[in-house]
Amino acid sequence: MQTETKSAKxxxxxxxxxxxxxxxxxxxxxxxxxxxxxxxxxxxxxxNFYYHFKSKEDLGYAIIDRLVRGFLNRTLEPAFxxxxxxxxxxxxxxxxxxxxNLRQRDCVGGCPLGNLAAELSDVHExxxxxxxxxxxxxxxxxxxxLRRSQAAGRLSADFNxxxxxxxxxxxLEGAILMSKVTKDIAVMEQCxxxxxxxxxxxxxx
Length: 205
Prior knowledge:
By secondary structure, the chain is an all-alpha fold. 77% of the residues lie in helices and 0% in strands. It is built from 9 helices and no strands. Helix 4 packs across helix 5 and helix 8 runs antiparallel to helix 9. The longest helix has 27 residues. The radius of gyration is 20 Å and the shape is elongated. 26% of the residues are buried.
C-alpha cells in the first residue's frame, strides 16, 4: 500500500511539473521558459524535478509526447472512429473539432505543436524529428480518408489525396496562426468553411 501511495504521489508530481511547463511553453515558447520558471509555476523543488526529468531537454520531449497523445486521442482519432461515416464528412468533423478547441481557448496560444515546430525545427534536430512524425501521421490520416472516399466514387478521379492532405494540414496551421494573431475566431471559422468548400469542388455526389 505504501509503495502504491508513493508511486501515485510521484506520478502526481510529474504531472504537476508537466502541466506547469506546458502552460508556460505554450504561451512563452520553449527557449523563453527557464527551469526556474517551471519550478516557480509548479511549486516543485529542484530535487523533485531532477528525480523525474534528467534535464530541460528531457522535459521538452515529455511535453511533446504528451501533446502528441492529446492531439491523437482527443482530436484526430475520434474524428475517424466511425467506419460507416463518409470519409469526407469525417474530415469535416475533424476540422470542426480543431475549430472548437481554438474557440474554447479564445484564440490564445495557437497550435502547441505548430508553435514548437516553428521555434525548434531549425535549432534542435531531436525535437524536429519528433514533431515531424506527428505532422506525417496527421497528413497520412487525412490522405487515407480521402483515398477511401475516392475509391468509393465520391471524389473525382483526377483528385490527388496526398496533395490535398498536405494542403489541408498547411492551410489549417496557417488558419490557426492567423486566428492567434488577430484574436478573432471568425478568421478560423471562415478558413474552415473554405477548406470544406474546397473538398466539395472534387465531389461527384
